[in-house]
Amino acid sequence: MGKKITLACTVCQSRNYTANKNTASESERLEVKKYCKTCGKHTLHRETK
């Protein structure tokens, strides 16, 4: 089991999703295109600190 991370929308900065990440094999930040309820469209979501 990896570390629990939070994904934030790059447009409105709302934190919508959580995910698990394997920190041993992945060192850079996760970027996924997901649906944002606040914006009402698909936007890029990045891992937050």
From TrEMBL:
Pfam families membership: Ribosomal_L33
SUPFAM superfamilies from the UniProt entry: Zn-binding ribosomal proteins
Alphabetized NCBIfam families for the sequence: PRK00504.1 (NF001764), PRK00595.1 (NF001860), rpmG_bact (TIGR01023)
One GO location term (cellular component): ribosome
InterPro entries on file: Ribosomal_bL33, Ribosomal_bL33_sf, Ribosomal_zn-bd
Keyword terms, alphabetized: Ribonucleoprotein, Ribosomal protein
Family matches, as Gene3D superfamilies: Ribosomal protein L33 (2.20.28.120)
Protein name: Large ribosomal subunit protein bL33
Protein family according to the UniProt entry: Belongs to the bacterial ribosomal protein bL33 family.
